[in-house]
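B., you asked whether I could sanity-check this one before it goes into the benchmark set. Here's the sequence:
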Amino acid sequence: MSSSILRYSVFAAIIVAAASPRPGASAEVGKRVDYTWAQCTAAAVVDNDHDTLDDDCEFKLAYAFQPRLVFDNLEWAEDRRPYWAVKPTGTRSARIFYALSYFREMDTVPGWHYGDTEFIVVQVEWKESDRWQVRSLFTSAHYAHTDDSGWADLSDVHWYGETLGRPFIFVALAKHANYVQLAECRHVDPLNGDPSADWCDDDGAEEDVQIFANRNLGNYHDPLNGTTAVTYDGNTEHFWGPNWGNDYLASLAETDPDLLGESDSEKFCGWQDHDAYRTLCVYEENSYLRQLCDFDFCDPNSRVQSQCESCDEDHDCAGGGSCVTIDSEQVCAQACDDSVPCSTGFTCAEGLCMPQWERLGCRAIKKIL
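And here's what the prediction gave me:
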């Protein structure tokens, strides 16, 4: 019997088995980190990527909220060299990008390849209660390909320790797609063992992502730790694209900056031996440069939407704001309290900045002011 047939025979045998529950989350909510929001953004911070956040605070946040990966007991391609990045997304909130950087994907359909660029994004917020909390969570599952990626419902997430702290992530066997619910990953048909589908189980190893201070990617305009060209085991990967450099940035700014992450990407090979054309590697459209640009790490001055700017979801809004309907428009209402007042023309109502004059919407207030 071939190894692939045996593998899917095992799948069919265990698909009906009940998933053992994850350890229950503690009664505590959020994570204590060595920094408050004010300390993260203090004037004297060490900020080598020039994004207003202290570099050590970025590391402490990435370390504190690193997901807990749950592998299938048949997993044989879990080797990886993760990198990460953190950026502010408004008052009191930050986005953490975990580039998992697997050495290879061992899928049988359409075939194995060097490197795997799955990732996880965790949005966190300082809550003025000596703790930071997860506010939203994005998991990649074949991002920009056969895509099951998306923002998770936090009520579906299992937590490793404190609630709204470190999420458990179920990792698809050999293909590394990420899921917050075991059932969402169990795509295998037990009758035909569809090899193109994802499968997860929770009876294998649990591992941390693996966060090190010297693997902070920074951002495209101020990359850190030599991540423009990372050499490991004799091979080099370019997280910020093969053409990165000041001359290239200047020329791109004069032409079409929207092409950043699309025209400047490179196949990711997971530091494995490859031919000159990187034939058996992750394609450019799923490079880490493209993904990091998609999550706003290519413009250090970009921020998610502020007060009265259009939105689709709560996570589009900066600083713990919410996407609400004001005067028939879906717009962001910023979070507020005694220490964070609203701007002129708005009043704090139940923790959100709303128009001060009931009959006036965002557009009218902006015109008046």
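One thing to flag: The helical segments are 3-14, 37-40, 55-64, 182-185, 246-254, 288-294, 362-368. Otherwise nothing jumped out at me.
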